[in-house]
Design brief:
315 residues, Fructose-1,6-Bisphosphatase, Chain A, domain 1, D-Maltodextrin-Binding Protein, domain 2, 2 domains, 27% strand, globular
Length: 315
Protein backbone atom coordinates (compact mmCIF):
# COMPACT_ATOMS: atom_id res chain seq x y z
CA UNK A 1 0.00 0.00 0.00
CA UNK A 2 1.35 3.43 -0.90
CA UNK A 3 -1.10 5.00 1.54
CA UNK A 4 -1.11 3.91 5.18
CA UNK A 5 -4.82 3.18 5.30
CA UNK A 6 -4.55 2.40 8.99
CA UNK A 7 -4.12 6.12 9.63
CA UNK A 8 -7.22 6.72 7.53
CA UNK A 9 -9.54 4.15 9.10
CA UNK A 10 -8.52 5.01 12.67
CA UNK A 11 -10.39 8.28 12.23
CA UNK A 12 -13.54 6.23 11.75
CA UNK A 13 -12.94 4.06 14.82
CA UNK A 14 -12.20 7.17 16.88
CA UNK A 15 -15.44 8.85 15.80
CA UNK A 16 -17.33 5.63 16.53
CA UNK A 17 -15.82 5.41 20.00
CA UNK A 18 -16.58 9.06 20.74
CA UNK A 19 -20.16 8.57 19.57
CA UNK A 20 -20.58 5.51 21.79
CA UNK A 21 -19.08 7.32 24.77
CA UNK A 22 -21.89 9.88 24.67
CA UNK A 23 -24.41 7.10 25.37
CA UNK A 24 -22.25 4.80 27.48
CA UNK A 25 -23.97 3.41 30.56
CA UNK A 26 -27.46 4.74 29.75
CA UNK A 27 -28.85 1.29 29.04
CA UNK A 28 -30.00 2.21 25.53
CA UNK A 29 -28.72 -0.85 23.67
CA UNK A 30 -30.33 -0.21 20.27
CA UNK A 31 -29.68 3.51 20.39
CA UNK A 32 -25.96 3.22 21.13
CA UNK A 33 -25.50 0.62 18.38
CA UNK A 34 -27.39 2.62 15.75
CA UNK A 35 -25.78 5.95 16.66
CA UNK A 36 -22.32 4.41 16.46
CA UNK A 37 -22.95 2.54 13.20
CA UNK A 38 -24.16 5.71 11.53
CA UNK A 39 -21.10 7.64 12.74
CA UNK A 40 -18.78 4.91 11.50
CA UNK A 41 -20.37 4.86 8.05
CA UNK A 42 -20.27 8.63 7.63
CA UNK A 43 -16.56 8.67 8.45
CA UNK A 44 -15.59 5.64 6.36
CA UNK A 45 -17.55 7.08 3.46
CA UNK A 46 -15.00 9.91 3.24
CA UNK A 47 -12.24 7.49 2.27
CA UNK A 48 -10.84 7.83 -1.24
CA UNK A 49 -11.63 4.20 -2.06
CA UNK A 50 -14.25 2.14 -3.84
CA UNK A 51 -14.95 -0.01 -0.81
CA UNK A 52 -17.10 -3.11 -0.38
CA UNK A 53 -18.27 -3.87 3.14
CA UNK A 54 -17.85 -7.53 4.11
CA UNK A 55 -19.16 -9.61 7.03
CA UNK A 56 -21.48 -7.06 8.61
CA UNK A 57 -23.00 -9.07 11.45
CA UNK A 58 -26.03 -6.76 11.69
CA UNK A 59 -26.99 -6.66 8.03
CA UNK A 60 -30.74 -7.14 7.64
CA UNK A 61 -31.39 -6.89 11.37
CA UNK A 62 -34.63 -5.08 12.20
CA UNK A 63 -34.43 -1.70 13.95
CA UNK A 64 -30.69 -1.51 13.26
CA UNK A 65 -29.01 1.18 11.17
CA UNK A 66 -27.99 -0.46 7.90
CA UNK A 67 -24.56 0.44 6.55
CA UNK A 68 -24.57 0.40 2.73
CA UNK A 69 -22.53 -2.34 1.09
CA UNK A 70 -20.56 0.24 -0.93
CA UNK A 71 -18.42 2.68 1.03
CA UNK A 72 -16.11 5.51 0.01
CA UNK A 73 -15.83 8.45 -2.38
CA UNK A 74 -14.21 6.46 -5.17
CA UNK A 75 -10.70 5.24 -5.90
CA UNK A 76 -8.92 1.91 -5.65
CA UNK A 77 -11.17 -1.09 -5.07
CA UNK A 78 -10.89 -2.29 -1.47
CA UNK A 79 -12.56 -4.69 0.92
CA UNK A 80 -13.72 -3.30 4.25
CA UNK A 81 -14.58 -5.01 7.51
CA UNK A 82 -15.96 -2.71 10.19
CA UNK A 83 -17.50 -3.21 13.61
CA UNK A 84 -18.73 0.09 14.93
CA UNK A 85 -19.23 -1.21 18.45
CA UNK A 86 -18.09 -4.69 19.38
CA UNK A 87 -19.58 -5.34 22.80
CA UNK A 88 -22.53 -2.98 22.36
CA UNK A 89 -24.50 -4.53 25.23
CA UNK A 90 -21.52 -4.02 27.53
CA UNK A 91 -21.08 -0.40 26.41
CA UNK A 92 -24.78 0.33 26.93
CA UNK A 93 -24.57 -0.63 30.59
CA UNK A 94 -21.05 0.66 31.17
CA UNK A 95 -19.12 -2.61 31.27
CA UNK A 96 -15.64 -3.28 29.93
CA UNK A 97 -14.15 -4.53 26.62
CA UNK A 98 -16.22 -2.52 24.12
CA UNK A 99 -14.19 -1.36 21.11
CA UNK A 100 -14.66 0.00 17.62
CA UNK A 101 -12.52 -1.62 14.92
CA UNK A 102 -12.05 -1.65 11.16
CA UNK A 103 -9.96 -3.46 8.55
CA UNK A 104 -9.16 -2.40 5.00
CA UNK A 105 -7.67 -4.87 2.52
CA UNK A 106 -7.10 -5.15 -1.19
CA UNK A 107 -10.05 -6.12 -3.36
CA UNK A 108 -10.90 -9.76 -2.69
CA UNK A 109 -8.68 -9.84 0.39
CA UNK A 110 -11.38 -10.55 2.98
CA UNK A 111 -13.19 -13.89 3.06
CA UNK A 112 -16.96 -13.72 3.59
CA UNK A 113 -18.34 -15.97 6.32
CA UNK A 114 -21.90 -16.82 7.36
CA UNK A 115 -23.21 -15.06 10.46
CA UNK A 116 -22.88 -18.14 12.65
CA UNK A 117 -21.12 -19.23 15.80
CA UNK A 118 -17.40 -20.04 15.60
CA UNK A 119 -15.19 -21.90 18.05
CA UNK A 120 -11.86 -20.06 18.33
CA UNK A 121 -8.47 -20.47 19.90
CA UNK A 122 -5.95 -17.62 19.67
CA UNK A 123 -2.37 -17.19 20.88
CA UNK A 124 0.53 -14.83 20.34
CA UNK A 125 3.62 -15.29 18.12
CA UNK A 126 5.62 -17.15 20.79
CA UNK A 127 3.09 -20.00 20.66
CA UNK A 128 2.74 -20.06 16.88
CA UNK A 129 1.60 -23.42 15.56
CA UNK A 130 1.52 -25.29 18.87
CA UNK A 131 -2.27 -25.25 19.34
CA UNK A 132 -4.82 -27.58 17.78
CA UNK A 133 -8.49 -26.69 18.09
CA UNK A 134 -9.44 -30.39 17.88
CA UNK A 135 -7.43 -31.22 21.00
CA UNK A 136 -8.77 -30.87 24.57
CA UNK A 137 -8.11 -27.58 26.38
CA UNK A 138 -5.65 -29.27 28.75
CA UNK A 139 -3.35 -30.31 25.89
CA UNK A 140 -3.41 -26.85 24.29
CA UNK A 141 -2.74 -25.12 27.61
CA UNK A 142 0.24 -27.40 28.33
CA UNK A 143 1.62 -26.84 24.82
CA UNK A 144 1.32 -23.06 25.23
CA UNK A 145 2.90 -23.15 28.69
CA UNK A 146 5.94 -24.96 27.24
CA UNK A 147 6.17 -22.52 24.31
CA UNK A 148 6.00 -19.54 26.67
CA UNK A 149 8.35 -21.18 29.20
CA UNK A 150 5.74 -20.67 31.91
CA UNK A 151 4.34 -22.92 34.57
CA UNK A 152 0.84 -24.06 33.65
CA UNK A 153 -0.43 -22.23 36.73
CA UNK A 154 0.99 -18.99 35.27
CA UNK A 155 -0.87 -19.30 31.94
CA UNK A 156 -3.95 -17.06 31.67
CA UNK A 157 -6.91 -18.09 29.50
CA UNK A 158 -9.55 -15.55 28.44
CA UNK A 159 -13.07 -16.95 28.01
CA UNK A 160 -16.46 -15.36 27.38
CA UNK A 161 -18.64 -15.78 30.46
CA UNK A 162 -21.46 -17.63 28.68
CA UNK A 163 -23.49 -20.66 29.72
CA UNK A 164 -22.15 -22.74 26.84
CA UNK A 165 -18.65 -22.37 28.25
CA UNK A 166 -19.34 -23.96 31.66
CA UNK A 167 -17.63 -27.21 30.63
CA UNK A 168 -14.70 -25.37 29.02
CA UNK A 169 -14.20 -23.28 32.17
CA UNK A 170 -14.24 -26.44 34.31
CA UNK A 171 -11.66 -28.14 32.06
CA UNK A 172 -9.37 -25.10 32.18
CA UNK A 173 -9.63 -24.95 35.97
CA UNK A 174 -8.64 -28.62 36.13
CA UNK A 175 -5.28 -27.74 34.53
CA UNK A 176 -4.53 -25.13 37.19
CA UNK A 177 -4.34 -22.31 34.62
CA UNK A 178 -5.69 -18.89 35.48
CA UNK A 179 -8.94 -17.66 33.90
CA UNK A 180 -10.13 -14.20 32.93
CA UNK A 181 -13.86 -14.15 32.20
CA UNK A 182 -15.33 -11.36 30.08
CA UNK A 183 -19.02 -10.79 29.43
CA UNK A 184 -18.49 -9.39 25.92
CA UNK A 185 -15.74 -8.16 23.64
CA UNK A 186 -14.12 -11.27 22.19
CA UNK A 187 -12.02 -9.19 19.78
CA UNK A 188 -10.53 -7.30 22.71
CA UNK A 189 -9.80 -10.61 24.45
CA UNK A 190 -8.19 -12.05 21.31
CA UNK A 191 -6.04 -8.95 20.81
CA UNK A 192 -4.86 -9.24 24.40
CA UNK A 193 -3.87 -12.87 23.76
CA UNK A 194 -2.06 -11.98 20.51
CA UNK A 195 -0.05 -9.27 22.26
CA UNK A 196 0.42 -11.27 25.48
CA UNK A 197 -1.13 -8.45 27.47
CA UNK A 198 -2.35 -10.12 30.68
CA UNK A 199 -3.76 -12.98 28.59
CA UNK A 200 -1.94 -15.92 26.96
CA UNK A 201 -4.80 -17.78 25.22
CA UNK A 202 -8.32 -16.96 24.09
CA UNK A 203 -10.65 -19.95 23.89
CA UNK A 204 -14.32 -20.50 23.21
CA UNK A 205 -17.30 -19.76 21.01
CA UNK A 206 -18.01 -16.35 19.52
CA UNK A 207 -19.20 -15.04 16.16
CA UNK A 208 -17.65 -15.98 12.82
CA UNK A 209 -17.38 -12.35 11.52
CA UNK A 210 -15.36 -11.46 14.61
CA UNK A 211 -13.03 -14.30 13.68
CA UNK A 212 -12.19 -12.49 10.43
CA UNK A 213 -11.28 -9.36 12.42
CA UNK A 214 -9.00 -11.45 14.64
CA UNK A 215 -7.41 -13.01 11.54
CA UNK A 216 -6.66 -9.51 10.23
CA UNK A 217 -4.95 -8.63 13.50
CA UNK A 218 -2.79 -11.75 13.24
CA UNK A 219 -1.82 -10.92 9.64
CA UNK A 220 -0.62 -7.56 10.94
CA UNK A 221 0.81 -8.48 14.34
CA UNK A 222 1.72 -12.16 14.20
CA UNK A 223 0.26 -14.88 16.38
CA UNK A 224 -1.83 -17.91 15.56
CA UNK A 225 -5.56 -18.53 15.19
CA UNK A 226 -7.77 -21.50 14.52
CA UNK A 227 -11.54 -21.32 14.12
CA UNK A 228 -14.28 -23.82 13.36
CA UNK A 229 -17.79 -22.70 12.37
CA UNK A 230 -20.64 -24.46 14.17
CA UNK A 231 -23.45 -25.53 11.83
CA UNK A 232 -26.58 -26.51 13.75
CA UNK A 233 -28.76 -27.56 10.83
CA UNK A 234 -29.15 -27.63 7.05
CA UNK A 235 -30.16 -23.95 6.98
CA UNK A 236 -26.81 -23.04 8.54
CA UNK A 237 -25.01 -25.14 5.92
CA UNK A 238 -26.89 -23.29 3.17
CA UNK A 239 -25.60 -20.01 4.64
CA UNK A 240 -22.10 -21.47 4.42
CA UNK A 241 -22.56 -22.60 0.83
CA UNK A 242 -23.70 -19.07 -0.07
CA UNK A 243 -20.23 -17.87 1.00
CA UNK A 244 -18.47 -20.59 -0.99
CA UNK A 245 -17.92 -22.98 1.92
CA UNK A 246 -18.51 -26.67 1.19
CA UNK A 247 -16.25 -28.24 3.82
CA UNK A 248 -18.26 -27.96 7.02
CA UNK A 249 -15.46 -29.44 9.14
CA UNK A 250 -12.87 -26.93 7.89
CA UNK A 251 -10.47 -25.44 10.41
CA UNK A 252 -9.96 -21.80 9.43
CA UNK A 253 -6.62 -20.11 9.99
CA UNK A 254 -5.68 -16.47 9.51
CA UNK A 255 -4.51 -17.02 5.94
CA UNK A 256 -7.89 -18.55 5.03
CA UNK A 257 -9.78 -15.44 6.13
CA UNK A 258 -7.41 -12.61 5.18
CA UNK A 259 -6.08 -13.54 1.78
CA UNK A 260 -3.35 -10.92 1.40
CA UNK A 261 -0.68 -9.13 3.43
CA UNK A 262 -2.00 -5.92 1.90
CA UNK A 263 -4.17 -5.19 4.91
CA UNK A 264 -4.47 -2.52 7.59
CA UNK A 265 -6.35 -2.58 10.88
CA UNK A 266 -7.35 0.02 13.44
CA UNK A 267 -9.22 -0.18 16.74
CA UNK A 268 -10.24 2.33 19.39
CA UNK A 269 -11.34 1.53 22.93
CA UNK A 270 -14.82 2.59 24.02
CA UNK A 271 -14.75 1.22 27.57
CA UNK A 272 -11.64 0.01 29.38
CA UNK A 273 -10.66 -3.45 28.23
CA UNK A 274 -8.01 -6.15 28.21
CA UNK A 275 -6.25 -4.51 25.29
CA UNK A 276 -7.23 -0.84 25.01
CA UNK A 277 -8.30 1.84 27.45
CA UNK A 278 -11.68 3.43 26.89
CA UNK A 279 -12.68 7.00 26.07
CA UNK A 280 -11.73 9.55 28.73
CA UNK A 281 -14.02 12.57 28.73
CA UNK A 282 -12.37 15.92 29.51
CA UNK A 283 -13.89 19.37 30.22
CA UNK A 284 -13.67 20.38 26.55
CA UNK A 285 -13.47 17.08 24.70
CA UNK A 286 -12.11 13.57 25.11
CA UNK A 287 -9.04 11.37 24.88
CA UNK A 288 -9.16 8.19 22.82
CA UNK A 289 -6.77 5.23 22.87
CA UNK A 290 -6.24 3.38 19.59
CA UNK A 291 -3.91 1.04 17.81
CA UNK A 292 -3.00 0.86 14.12
CA UNK A 293 -1.34 -2.13 12.45
CA UNK A 294 -0.20 -2.88 8.92
CA UNK A 295 0.24 -6.29 7.34
CA UNK A 296 2.93 -5.54 4.78
CA UNK A 297 5.39 -4.04 7.26
CA UNK A 298 4.09 -5.63 10.49
CA UNK A 299 4.31 -2.20 12.06
CA UNK A 300 2.14 -1.48 15.07
CA UNK A 301 1.36 1.88 16.65
CA UNK A 302 -0.53 2.85 19.76
CA UNK A 303 -2.18 6.21 19.47
CA UNK A 304 -3.49 8.57 22.14
CA UNK A 305 -5.57 11.33 20.58
CA UNK A 306 -6.97 14.44 22.23
CA UNK A 307 -10.24 15.63 20.72
CA UNK A 308 -11.79 19.06 21.18
CA UNK A 309 -15.54 18.88 20.59
CA UNK A 310 -15.76 22.47 19.33
CA UNK A 311 -13.89 21.27 16.24
CA UNK A 312 -15.40 17.81 15.81
CA UNK A 313 -18.43 16.82 13.73
CA UNK A 314 -21.31 15.69 15.91
CA UNK A 315 -23.21 12.61 14.72
Amino acid sequence: MDINYGMEIVRATEISALSAARLQGLGEVDNILNYTREALYKTLNRLQVDGTLKNDRFVGRENTYQIPAKVGKGGPKKDLLAMALEGHNAAAIGRNNAISCAVLAEDGGIQSLPNLSMLKIVVGPEAYGVIDILQPPAINIKRVSRALKKYTESVTVCILDHARHHRLIHEVKETGARIKLISEGEISGCLAAIMGKKVDIFMGYGFAPEGVMVAAAIKCLGGYFEGKIFYENERDKELGRAEGIDDFEKIFRAEDLILSNDVSMAATGVTDGKFLEGVDLTPNGAITHSFIARGQSHTYRKLETRHFFDYKPVY
